[in-house]
Design brief:
By secondary structure, the protein is an alpha/beta fold. Helices cover about 20% and strands about 30% of the residues. Strands 6-5-4-3-2-1-14 form a seven-stranded mixed sheet, covered by helices on one side. Strands 7-8-9-10-11-12-13 form a seven-stranded mixed sheet. It binds nickel (II) ion and manganese (II) ion.
Length: about 230
Amino acid sequence: MKLTWYGHSTWQVTIGEVGIVIDPFFNHNPLAPIKAEEVEAQYLVLTHGHGDHLGDTALIARRTDATVIANAEICGWLQRQGLERVHPQHLGGGFHYPFGYLKLTIAVHGSSLPDGSYGGMPAGVLISAEGKKLYHAGDTGLFASMALIGEEGLDVALLPIGDNYTMGPEDALRAVKLLRPKVAIPMHYGTWDLIAQDPHAWAERVRRETDTQPYVMQVGETYTVL
Ligand code: NI
Ligand code: MN
């Protein structure tokens, strides 16, 4: 399992030959080193309907024929935009895809769609594949039942630290203590001034105060889950 960060909450997860993009926000993402037109994916996974996560879903899905995995409300909205390949799931539910098992988990946030439509509940994403477990928290505040997600035994947790819209560094540190992943990687910071943070200062606290190994990604870098 390999993870490439495109800034914000946008990740390419590569499992074997399968490319999965979580929250495909490229063309309006000031950090993204590539354009939506260059993205190759077999699956697009959406944590919620906000523009900085839904991103370029329609554009990429139309060109690549990728299947979109999201909650039922977002999938229904995308179908009304003419996208045919969708796989609706909902919170707490998982499905065995060819690449592995993907479950939507709870997140404490909103999920309205760009035209104001109801986007259902926001989600986190738990992917189990190749004997590894990856948790992408989506946009969320801190919640106590992160401890239940942690009971799954996480190899990597991708956590927002930007504050303002999501957990800030303090709460993201508390999240690490609940989730207890082997590795924690910060995201959803530095995209705009409003969510500017020092990821290295956060990583230092994770290193000092928890048993988790922090890792700060460079934009465009690929991390191999060992
Ligand atoms: Ni959001
Ligand atoms: Mn967001």
